[in-house]
Amino acid sequence: MKNSALSKLPWVAIALLGAWAFGNIATHRGESINAIWFVAAAVCVYLLAFRFYSAWICARVLSLDETRATPAERFNNGRDFLPTNRWIVFGHHFAAIAGPGPLVGPTLAMQFGYLPGTIWILAGSVLGGCVQDMVIMFCSTRRDGRSLGKMARDELGPVGGWAALVGTLMIMIILIAVLGLVVVNAMKHSPWGTSTVALTIPIAIIVGLYMRSIRPGRVLEASALGLGMLLVAVWAGGAIDQSEFRSWFDFDGQALAWMIIAYGFAAATLPVWLLLAPRDYLSTFLKLGTIFLLAVAIIVLAPEVKMPALTRFVDGNGPIFAGNVFPFVFITIACGAISGFHSLISSGTTPKLLANEREIRMIGYGSMALESFVAIMAVIAATVLEPGVYFAINTAAGVAGALPADAVKTITGWGFPVTAEQMATLAQEMGEKTLFARTGGAPSLAVGMANIFSKSFGGSMLSIWYHFAIMFEAMFILTTLDAGTRVGRFMLQDMLKHIWPPLGETSSMGSSILASFLICSAWGYFLYIGVTDPAGGVNILWPLFGISNQLLAGIALTVATGILVKMGRLRYVWVTGLPLAWITVVTTTASFQKIFSTDPKLGFLAAASDMAAKLAAGTLPAAKAAVAPTLIFNQRLDAVLCILFVSLLWIIIIDMVRMSIRFTQGRSVHPLSESGYTPTRLTPAMLAAGGH
Amino acid sequence: MPACAPAGKPGRAGEPGPLLRVWRFLRELSGDDAYERYLAHHATEHPEQAPLDRRQYFDGAVRQRWSGVNRCC
Questions:
Q1: Which chain A residues contact residue B61 at CB under 8 A?
Q2: Do the Cβ atoms of A583 and A553 come closer than 8 Å?
Q3: Domains in chain A and their CATH numbers?
Q4: How many domains in chain B?
């Protein structure tokens, strides 16, 4: 290669800049630190990892073959199998993987300070999450675009396939419940937020009717119309809040939980074109647009991060969720570092669109790096708040105290000064009645985003920006919720058909309603309990979600590791093996603590016994005593779920190790299910011209 | 092909201008031109059959798109 020394110079500069920025973040102990350092460190890490690590994996470990025809080319049907321009696939893949997870998780994890979360987001993504997404995409592309569950069955056997199926369904249920809880907490007693979010439903229906009946398939027109209406809805919510209709939209948590459950049921049973598909178009545009805007705003504004690098809560006494920084920062931040759910997308629609294997690197590894950057932006949005304000918003009333005076005293006592006046002014600026105990991460993220947006783009419309941010979060949380309920329904019907075949007919009205009802009841149960829990509910559900998502990552990495062994890449098996080992250690430790810890704040069983003892002794206040039996049952159920998650993970790992040992001993195993080699006939020119 | 000129200035003959390219990218990314692509695919692959109309095509595409996992956390 000519000029090889010269061509390496920019990379040396990037490495030096990244090291400098990272060193600055890690060693800084002053009042505040500029957010630009986070952006610089993150971008340098992604660039270096993409340029060197991903290239090395693709060349040496996976041996991507540019001459090999992809499933998109071999099964081109002009529809789901379709060789597509790589930037288009990148856009689709990123839009599919980037949900509310990388925004909520990092926000909650900032109770430890900015450093643990930031290190995990950067290291976890480039060594774990990006690798998982890319390797699974490779495996699926070499197997006609098959799903993770099918690959687990083909490569490891029925045990692996079964574990993947159950794991996916469980994660779906917990995910929907916790996301529902986040939306409920953002809308609780907020007529502005509630009315704006409520308006998104008729807006989606209008867009759906437009796209189906008035101008079929005119996606851009319809989306532009819908986005315009959404912006009006943000303003209209403010007008409603000032009017006599405000009481129509002022609900407590229980009422909102029932509404969300009813909405989920409706969205799963109504025709897709009416609500689900148009909402998804709108939320995708909103998501990509807002993320882009936030990146621009952070770079323009260069805000100061006020959270310390580490807080006292690394010792496990955190108010937002219990548990030590190890393992709980790795559980709380799943999406944005490594998210098992991505493996379903990487083995779903995306591999059927790839025109050439070499694009797996950019799309698999690159998209995840971008999602990780979204998580870094969430870190910045949460940490530009005064730490006292951050804790006042995110700590449940049951922990900090129900009255503002009590809450500020508790939080100031932790060493994060905040005053009731400060919170009152902030709530007024944001157009909310109160911002105390608005748990779940969405309100504090919205306050952070509103600050950044209003300062960067001028104008002091803090309340408009705040509710725009709430609408943006609710929009794609609800999309995940209704899409997830629908997928859960299909998966459940797929299982139920083994009991009685008619239950599996997805087009049958009765069977669809039954399955939708079961799925909504399952997540609705966890959502409702979360709403009634005086400690906020998020503190229980989010770790459970993190554990289930890491479990799915563990399953995906196990399948990938098994495949690498059988491909004869034993010496490179650490590429997926190390992230797998880390995930296993983290998930097992976290589950163990959640089950067996004697601290009632952390351990499910300890909490159940503690509450049962207090209930028996009659020391609980009446309101708490009324819900105590439900909470006790729920804590025990959560413990059982944890046991189930960890057992599933260990079963599939042991199955893979057993298979790998047999393979290295030359005994018979399930053969590699890779499809045969077919040379590609697509030329770059054909792809540039559309490739269809 | 139906006209799909953007609001901006069109490029020189043969060479699409940057605005037109962005517009085409946006249309393909969003699926706005999916029906036109389907017609082109259909004309070369199955010329003997009549293609679906816009609405039939759109219904099928939506159904197929929402039958699996395509949104994440």
A1: 79, 217
A2: yes
A3: 11-189+251-664 (1.20.1740.10)
A4: 1
